[in-house]
Amino acid sequence: PDGAPAAPPAAVTHAGVTTAENVEIREKVTPPLQQWLRLGNEGSLSEKLNEQFVGLLLKEGHISSDAALSAFLVTSGELVVEACLKTSGPPPQGSPHLTSQNAKGGGGGKDGKDGGGGGGPGGGPLNYQVIDAYTRLLSAIVRYGFVDPTLSAATKRLQMLTRVLGAAVRLTAAEHEAYRNGFAAGFDQRPYFRIFHNLLVDLNAPDPVLDARSLLVLNAFASALHQLRPAAAPGFAFAWLELVSNRHFMPAVLNHGEREKAWNLFHVLMVDLFSMLDGYLGASPAAGNGGELSDALRTLYKGTMRTLLVLLHDYPAFLIDYHLSFCDAIPAQCIQMRNLILSAFPRSMRLPDPLTPNLKVDRLPEIAQAPRVMSNFRAALAAAQGGALQASLDQYLLGRGGPPDFVPSLPALLRRPSAPGEYDVPLVNSLVVYVGAHAIGLLQERKGQAQTQPHVHLYLGLVTALDAAGRYHVLNAIANQLRYPNSHTHYFSCVMLQLFGSAPNDAVKEQITRVLLERLIVHRPHPWGLLITFIELIKNRRYAFWTHAFTRCAPEIERVFESVARGCMSQAQGQDGQGGGGNGGGGGNGGGGGGLNSGLG
């Protein structure tokens, strides 16, 4: 067709077939596709006609086998996307990675035209009539295209939906890969977004057999989105985020009755998103040096934050359950994003006012309750050194000694084998939480009388033996547990304060202060446990916080400390519930009072 990119040198198209085969398939697919489009333009389509047309496709062999079905769906998809793109300007020029296009306008208007956003080729709107007709055909094939008499109607439709989504994934991935490899002048994500969006909408229409709320249906869409995750198809990232957060998908997953299975589907997609951000921010010159982010990355970051705000407001329990794996994946630079996740608290909870006179945090009833943790925080530790690291750690924590040089050897063991200069952050996080959970278990098992000195000694040994980079990761792992009132928040708050009080030098104390402070100087929300720890640190004379030189090393630094201290106090006196009051909590996200260190045994 006119305007198609030149074939790659090996005479193999990006669809994976030879040029001659591709031409032959197109010639075979074009007549029935044109017939379908003509019927749609005439307004003749009905459910009965849809069934008859799909029966004709089966009879003529277009969709009678898996290979034929795949070729028909992908090739017809290529044709309608090409036709759609011809309604706009030339393809965009630019990087094969994150593009500056934003698909949020890709939903389009009621007349089948682009809603005006989306930034496509030439910035012009697209006419989606052929795309809409194509997706109506896909829906008809899902309903009527599987004829195995041994299967139920629901099973047949589910299997066909899986095949249709697989073809849409291959179509999108192939076109994106052609762009990345230089075989196409550009990649406009909007037509591909429209295909997936229409399928979501069609499957949410009333249907007596295929239930869009079925976990199997949701799993099919989640699997398709995972295959097109931003790390695999960065040019599709904006459309991908729009689909993940779509009102026909996200609420259906997070409101599903089989909560654990359904939530894990969405958890995987959120980790996909955070991992992609980590890859770009980690490699960006802007990372950590105050440089400017690209417009595309900035837009994606804002979209991610909006999605997280919706989750914080409507589904705080989801963020609570998976905070550990989210913190593993979130870039170190995204402090406000991490704060937002760690600020989630149960809907039934009202956060205690930490400035209540003589408040004893350790006597709050919530402190005895362990948080629900769905992330497998033991996985990285169990995999390290084939399990040898966890075995030695268990011996040490049980007071049986373990290797005599166990703690001094940890800094080397926490580095990545493939990159010895870098720390394995998920492993550091896993070790910190594992040790804390072990200590909390002993305290609860023995009614608070357990001796947990090996655990505290290990933390102190780590922050003493590690260099500044490694120590920062350990302290961040501890700070990631400072959330709403629960046994983990209380224990790790005590650990952080004891490390400050027992640190052998001001360098460690300064770094503890940095970890807390950098989470407090960003915009709200701030986790309740973070505030309670910092307020205790600056108020309790035991820590002599204001006497340390690093609080007075420069006038501007001193002003920052004073400003944050005042801000913490004002937040403690009254702060809205999470997500703008959507989680019911009153009270402050602050802290203070006495008795914090009593949680260490």
In the CATH scheme, the class of the domain at 19-202 would be Mainly Alpha
Average pLDDT works out at: 83
Assign an overall shape: elongated
Computed structural class: mainly alpha
- Evaluate the radius of gyration: 28 Å
Portion in strands: under 5%
What fraction, in percent, of the residue positions are helical? 55-70%
The run of helices and strands is HHHHHHHHHHHHHHHHHEEHHHHHHHH
The major sheet is characterized as: 2 strands, antiparallel
Q: What would you say the CATH architecture of the domain at 19-202 is?
A: Alpha Horseshoe
Structure description:
This protein is mostly helical and 601 residues long. Among the domains are: 19-202, Serine Threonine Protein Phosphatase 5, Tetratricopeptide repeat (Alpha Horseshoe), CATH 1.25.40.790; 372-482, no CATH class. It has 25 helices and 2 strands. The chain has helices at 19-41, 47-59, 66-85, 129-144, 153-180, 190-203, 215-227, 237-244, 250-254, 259-283, 295-314, 316-321, 323-329, 335-342, 379-383, 388-397, 406-413, 425-445, 453-465, 468-479, 487-502, 506-520, 528-539, 555-573, 578-581, and strands spanning 415-416, 419-423. The protein has a two-stranded antiparallel sheet with strand order 1-2. A hairpin with a 2-residue loop joins β1 (415-416) and β2 (419-423). α6 packs parallel to α8 (237-244) and α19 packs antiparallel against α20. Residues 85-122, 572-601 are annotated as: Disordered. InterPro entries: CCR4-Not_Not1_C, Not1. Residues 104-122, 576-601 have a biased composition (Gly residues). This is CCR4-Not complex component Not1 C-terminal domain-containing protein. Residues 201-565 form the CCR4-Not complex component Not1 C-terminal domain.
